[in-house]
Amino acid sequence: MIKNLLKLEWNKIKYPYLISLGVGILYSCLIILPFISGYSYNHKIEIWQQSNQVFDLIFPLLAVLPSCWLMYYERKNNFFIYNLTRVSKKKYIISKWLMTSIGSAMIIFVVSFAGLIFCLKFTNNVKLNAIKLNGYDTSLKEFYGYYLANKPYLYGLILSVWRAVIGFIIGTFGFVLSLYINNIFIILTGPFVYVFIESYMFAILGVPYYSIVTSFDPSILIAKVISLKRILVGPFLLIMVICIISIYFSCIKKKSIHYI
């Protein structure tokens, strides 16, 4: 039953999802080009790191825009209530949550890893002169620098998978908002606003390594302040926020999700 529901949900979002995926892949590849020249690099993968600056900020939008709108409009048009006559509420919500969150995870993973592949395979005439200028390989001082320098594909794959996990959580956040919020603008921009405010607050407090942006891209800070425990704080905090929002609307306000 869940498998059939997932297929149904995919058919509803596949066109905006594939368009968003295509735009994301195109962006992740083209954004590499301006960073090829004008910088000193130890390895080609550092071009990919440098080009991720914008992606680090907009990834919540990329995660939620393709699919989180659907639940809002099904509630608004009473389509959600109509479907409850044919399938259980629990299974229907679970299928929509899985499609939204897995879809968010996959689009983040593909866009991230596609940029890496393009950078390593198709960029030429890159001057890798940083080692010569500095006298040593500075990339080895970065977070998991050995893998960055010697196994770039493995490094990029693991980082992209981790980003997909964060994308899954962001997708879940967007889905929870779509269950209870009656404003499509808040639903689609809420995760982005949260990430922006959270990152800003941690920066003000002097602990930017706790932010979900740092967790998404540990290379934005020097390696000595990054640890596995610290990069888990941002995702864990977001999960707590999701739980608090769910409990507030469902148990305290007792807000119905059936209609707007």
UniProtKB/TrEMBL annotation:
Bilayer-spanning residue ranges: 15-37, 57-73, 94-118, 153-180, 192-212, 232-251
Keywords: Membrane, Transmembrane, Transmembrane helix
Species the sequence originates in: Clostridium tepidiprofundi DSM 19306
Protein name (Swiss-Prot/TrEMBL): ABC-2 family transporter protein
Domain of life (superkingdom): Bacteria
